[in-house]
TrEMBL record:
<keyword id="KW-0723">Serine/threonine-protein kinase</keyword>
<keyword id="KW-0808">Transferase</keyword>
<dbReference type="Pfam" id="PF01163">
    <property type="entry name" value="RIO1"/>
</dbReference>
<dbReference type="Pfam" id="PF09202">
    <property type="entry name" value="Rio2_N"/>
</dbReference>
<keyword id="KW-0547">Nucleotide-binding</keyword>
<dbReference type="InterPro" id="IPR011009">
    <property type="entry name" value="Kinase-like_dom_sf"/>
</dbReference>
<dbReference type="GO" id="GO:0046872">
    <property type="term" value="F:metal ion binding"/>
</dbReference>
<dbReference type="InterPro" id="IPR000687">
    <property type="entry name" value="RIO_kinase"/>
</dbReference>
<dbReference type="GO" id="GO:0030490">
    <property type="term" value="P:maturation of SSU-rRNA"/>
</dbReference>
<dbReference type="InterPro" id="IPR015285">
    <property type="entry name" value="RIO2_wHTH_N"/>
</dbReference>
<dbReference type="GO" id="GO:0005634">
    <property type="term" value="C:nucleus"/>
</dbReference>
<feature type="compositionally biased region" description="Gly residues">
    <location>
        <begin position="352"/>
        <end position="361"/>
    </location>
</feature>
<keyword id="KW-0067">ATP-binding</keyword>
<keyword id="KW-0597">Phosphoprotein</keyword>
<keyword id="KW-0460">Magnesium</keyword>
<keyword id="KW-0479">Metal-binding</keyword>
<dbReference type="GO" id="GO:0005829">
    <property type="term" value="C:cytosol"/>
</dbReference>
Amino acid sequence: EGGGWRRGSQLHSLDAMPNLDVKALRYMSSDEFRVLTAVEMGMKNHELVPTSLIESISGLKRGGAFKYVKLLCRNKLVAHQSKPYDGYRLTFKGYDYLGLKTLSKRGTLGAVGIQIGVGKESDVFTVSTVEGEEVCLKLHRLGRACFRTVKNNRDYIRQDQHASWLYLSRLSALKEYAFMSALYSKGFPVPKPIDVNRHCVVMSLSMGYQLNSIQQLRHPGKVFDTLMQLICRLASYGLIHCDFNEFNLMVNDEEKVTLIDFPQMVSTSHPNAEDYFDRDVECIRTFFRRRFGFVAAEVPRFTQDVSRKHTLDVDLAASGWTSAASADFEQLHSLARSEEAGNHEEEEQDGGWDGVAGGRL
């Protein structure tokens, strides 16, 4: 899992790409999107959105709204439920369409390519801009493995956030974009952030391979030192990754490193900062010993080797990534991770992708 990575040029003919079907999106009417958006808006304070509310929000008459809702159901963009009351909810596919439509209207995306990454919390695709540049699209899906868990623990969610998986996935995308933008602006080796909407993050593609997939390095000691320096440099800016491992790092043919995922990053002011720092260091140390037979003589220590020189954590707290949003995200994400096993929604019910062709937006 991760964003902003590639193994090589894989942007094939845009009329024959698997995994993300956007053909229907191109032919959807403005009224269909009005109804789809109405369902999304209704889910801000309704677990299921009744037809009457869809009519009110969309501004369409009863017959028209109902007709489009049925069409959206047929295309698995919304799902109908009769319990605990009759209404409709947005599916993952419907949320994807809303995000893709907005990014297309902004001129950020011109076509969707193939899937290059998948995990419990995200799907990653190659996409192209309207100018034809190949970039990366990451769709956050934190509700995929834990929707029932979050849904059944309403005490952990703000009262107005009934659509927990929508909210959690959007917060995850906003957090990634905020941190990626801040790190990129300071010259850290991360993908270039391009745009964000809802649960969708667009970023540059990075050449290379996940460290986890690499069996041999020409200079393991040099790469190890680079990673230790990166952990320390993050800390000098007031940040600790908290999940610094072989799955969140890319290494290219020149053995240059790119950090591609940072969902749990915290401030060095966190009460457990030293423990998190030491855990990141030990994770890489253990991996290099087991995979490459490289044993580090010394490793950095938080109290001895970290000198805080910048306040990027404070700057982020003052940006669009607010403390309230951060608190909500950490609370929901912690709950989701603790009970995610076995809580999978069926693909048919959630309107998942059918592995069919992508295409122009």
